[in-house]
Design brief:
About 10% of the residues have low confidence. Strands 1-9-3-6-5 form a 5-stranded mixed sheet, with no helix packed on it. Strands 10-11-12-16-14 form a 5-stranded antiparallel sheet, with helices on one face. The chain has 261 residues and is α+β, with helices and mostly antiparallel strands. 20% of the residues lie in helices and 36% in strands. It contains 4 helices and 16 strands. The protein folds into 2 domains: 104 residues, Immunoglobulin-like, CATH 2.60.40; 120 residues, no CATH class.
Length: 261
């Protein structure tokens, strides 16, 4: 046996060992991490340019704050959310909602250039015998979403008193009724009127009044703040002094109005 044969055998062994270790590392990173939802925001780290999968029990929708919309690619397929950061960003609160049940999850996402944050995550609810039963009030609360909250707020402002009915799952919450800088510029005055909370979300009705002698077109993309949805009672304000120079906007947010503005 030549002297070089043991060396070749050692090199071959090392190569095989490294391949095995690499396969084990890949297998470990591919095994989903299970996280139980306990009403505490789930911290999730992302690596820039690397995709990470989040699995939920049902089809979901994702609400992104405006600060990360251009920094994060998000796709949803059934109950899986595909996330890939384009650039680094700090902690950002993201809301994920099950489309059918209304169950809401909060995620605290951050992204950096450190590689390896690719392990899939399964976010699950504790399944118990008691969890299969929901009282009517609990079930009502679970069904609240931006659409139902907006409809409720509009009814509170505009519907006749005889048509109003209390909804146990939606409660009035305090809001400062001082003017706020909601619309950029000085053309439109904004003043909060009332706010409610339901299903873990907030809806605030804000009065908008045109200050100028020219009509104003309202654009939800121009509003300041972090809003899941913004719905105008009317999309156009007539010149100041006209009876239609005032309208309302209904702002749905994951936090109270003052924290979202």
């Amino acid at each position: 046996m030549s002297r070089s044969q043991p060396l070749r055998q050692s090199i071959t062994f090392m190569i095989i060992l490294l391949q095995i270790l690499a396969q084990l590392a890949y297998a470990e990173s591919a095994v989903p991490q299970r996280i139980q939802w306990q009403k505490t925001p789930v911290a999730i780290a992302l690596s820039v340019g690397e995709e990470r999968l989040l699995h939920f029990r049902a089809p979901v929708s994702v609400g992104l704050p405006a600060t990360v919309e251009s920094r994060l690619r998000t796709q949803t397929v059934n109950g899986t959310v595909y996330l890939m950061a384009k650039v680094p960003f700090g902690n950002s609160r993201v809301m994920v909602r099950e489309i059918d049940s209304g169950q809401t999850y909060l995620l605290d996402l951050n992204a950096n250039t450190v590689t390896g944050h690719t392990q899939p995550i399964i976010i699950y609810l504790e399944e118990t015998a008691n969890a299969r039963y929901q009282s009517p009030e609990t079930d009502h609360r679970a069904q609240h979403d931006p659409v139902s909250l907006t409809r409720f707020a509009a009814q509170q402002l505009y519907a006749p008193m005889r048509l109003l009915s209390a909804v146990p799952a939606i409660v009035r919450v305090p809001v400062q009724q001082d003017p706020v800088a909601l619309v950029p510029g000085n053309a439109i005055d904004a003043k909060p009127l009332a706010a409610w909370r339901g299903g873990g979300l907030y809806v605030t009705a804000v009065r908008l009044r045109n200050r100028l002698k020219i009509a104003q077109i309202l654009d939800p993309r121009a509003l300041r703040g972090k809003w899941l949805t913004a719905t105008f009672q009317h999309a156009r304000l007539l010149p100041a002094g006209d009876e239609a120079d005032t309208t309302a906007v209904y702002l749905v947010s994951a936090q109270a109005f003052s924290a979202s503005l």
